[in-house]
Amino acid sequence: MNTDDDLDWITVNGAAVPLDESGSLGGEVGEKIESESNESGGGGKTYEAEKQEKIDSIDIDFEGDSILPNLNSETLEEFGIEDKPVLLKQGIIEKNMQNHPEVDRSEYKEIIGNALYKPDAVLSGGLNSQSYNFISKTGENKNAITLLQVENTNSDYLEIVNFFRISDKAVENKERRANK
Fold it and tell me: Are strands 131-139 and 121-124 parallel, antiparallel or unpaired?
């Protein structure tokens, strides 16, 4: 049996696809491949490195509002979201501390960063909703979820309105509701 390292790969519509021994498409589709160069033409940075850079740049101010990096371009395009920085208001942090005491302050950056910039799923908040649920798997039966309000045309920012951890079962329920 071949390992992934033994396979030849081609790119089809931006996705890595393995070829079997006869040269036919085979196996499972790999991760989407993005351009190795950044917009400034400097090159060298992978798309995953750019996402990690956004996460690393998050600095949460627990005594004031925090401005976070803009969402990834593919998320903006896929959902028709206007390109704006993300705002985390101090009031949301305070609400979160009260409503989700199980989430330690030290986890906020991981939850928000992974959900917004390395999401496993982005789901509509519901029918006629002005929000999306950004979900990222962060551990065994642990999912980070960030609820982001995106259709606030009166603001210069996309606003985080909630963030917390949810179970796999809760993710399944959100997916089921989003697909209705």
Answer: antiparallel
Angle of CA points 176, 177, 180, to nearest 5°: 90
**Cβ neighbours, 10 Å, residue 99:** 11
- Contact call for residues 177 and 159 (beta carbons, < 8 A): no
Q: What share of the chain is helix, strand, coil (3-state, %, to 5)?
A: 30, 25, 45
Angle of helix 47-56 versus helix 108-117 axis, rounded to 10: 150
> Distance between CA 73 and CA 63 in Å, rounded?
30
Please give the Cα distance from 124 to 6 (Å, whole number).
39
Kindly list the averaged pLDDT for each block of 10 residues, start to end, along the chain of length 180.
52 52 54 39 68 94 95 88 91 93 90 91 77 82 69 76 84 78
